[in-house]
């Protein structure tokens, strides 16, 4: 049950990742969390990563792959793991393969850009409690106010339409290439590729995942 989730920001990967973690008892591996943990542990790779980050530079693919390899060898990954947000590029996917990190399923959540923009730019947050509303799908009782406290709701910087569109452009430029990459890998029998319509209700997507993964 070694799984990669692919899809644009706002396509619903995070929600389904939580569902899969609970359902199958496998950990989600995010490169950000992994970097922070390695730095905290003071492992050799962690120390190297800290130096690079302290200098304000980007951590190399090689180092990230080393961390992923170290992480998937831990006991909690015995049943499998979930990679979300990695690999982001073809060189990272190649490096993963060269490092012998095998993947059983690649799941793509396909959602048109305009739907993602509507989903994300419609979100409103109550900063103190973290409660999230949506202008269309889950509106507050009083426009712009939190239901429980009556305090103002805000738009997170990440949810501003211009920011969302910039993030989508980066996804199409860099990460979308992985769709073709893993489709070809599936044709060669190296993994299984699943394409899901991410515009469906959350529960329906979850049900489809169960039937695909068994």
UniProtKB/TrEMBL annotation:
Matching Gene3D superfamilies: P-loop containing nucleotide triphosphate hydrolases
Binding residues for AMP: 31, 36, 57-59, 85-88, 92, 156, 167
Keyword Thylakoid: no
Molecular function per GO: AMP kinase activity; ATP binding
GO biological process annotation, one example: AMP salvage
Region feature (NMP): 30-59
UniProt domain Adenylate kinase active site lid: residue ranges: 123-158
Sites where the protein binds ATP: 10-15, 123, 132-133, 200
EC numbers on record: 2.7.4.3
Any Pfam family the entry gives: ADK
Annotated catalysed reactions: AMP + ATP = 2 ADP
Keywords: ATP-binding, Cytoplasm, Kinase, Nucleotide biosynthesis, Nucleotide-binding, Transferase
First-listed, main subcellular location of the protein, grouped into a coarse class: cytoplasm
Organism domain of life: Bacteria
GO cellular component terms attached to this protein's record: cytoplasm
Region called LID, residue ranges: 122-159
Pathway annotation: Purine metabolism; AMP biosynthesis via salvage pathway; AMP from ADP: step 1/1
Cited function: Catalyzes the reversible transfer of the terminal phosphate group between ATP and AMP. Plays an important role in cellular energy homeostasis and in adenine nucleotide metabolism.
Protein family: Belongs to the adenylate kinase family.
Free-text comment about domains: Consists of three domains, a large central CORE domain and two small peripheral domains, NMPbind and LID, which undergo movements during catalysis. The LID domain closes over the site of phosphoryl transfer upon ATP binding. Assembling and dissambling the active center during each catalytic cycle provides an effective means to prevent ATP hydrolysis.
PANTHER family: NUCLEOTIDE KINASE
NCBIfam families, per database record: adk (TIGR01351), PRK00279.1-1 (NF001379), PRK00279.1-2 (NF001380), PRK00279.1-3 (NF001381)
Complexes and interactors: Monomer.
Protein name as annotated: Adenylate kinase
Taxonomy of the source species: Bacteria, Pseudomonadati, Pseudomonadota, Gammaproteobacteria, Alteromonadales
């Amino acid at each position: 049950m070694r799984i990669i989730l692919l899809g644009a920001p706002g396509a619903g990967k995070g929600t389904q990742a939580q569902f899969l973690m609970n359902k199958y008892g496998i950990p989600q591996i995010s490169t950000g969390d992994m970097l922070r943990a390695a730095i905290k542990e003071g492992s050799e790779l962690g120390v190297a990563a800290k130096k690079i980050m302290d200098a304000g530079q980007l951590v190399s693919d090689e180092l990230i792959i080393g961390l992923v390899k170290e992480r998937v060898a831990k006991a909690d990954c015995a049943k499998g793991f979930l990679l979300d947000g990695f690999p982001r590029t073809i060189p990272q996917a190649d490096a993963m393969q060269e490092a012998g990190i095998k993947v059983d399923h690649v799941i793509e959540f396909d959602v048109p850009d305009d739907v993602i923009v509507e989903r994300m730019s419609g979100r409103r947050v109550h900063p103190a409690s973290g409660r999230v509303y949506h202008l269309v799908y889950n509106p507050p009782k009083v426009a712009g106010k939190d239901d429980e406290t009556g305090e103002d709701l805000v738009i997170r910087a990440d949810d501003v339409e211009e920011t969302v569109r910039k993030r989508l452009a980066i996804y199409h430029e860099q990460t979308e290439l992985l769709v073709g990459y893993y489709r070809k890998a599936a044709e060669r029998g190296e993994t299984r590729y699943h394409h899901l319509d991410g515009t469906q209700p959350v529960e329906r997507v979850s049900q489809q995942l169960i039937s695909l993964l068994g």
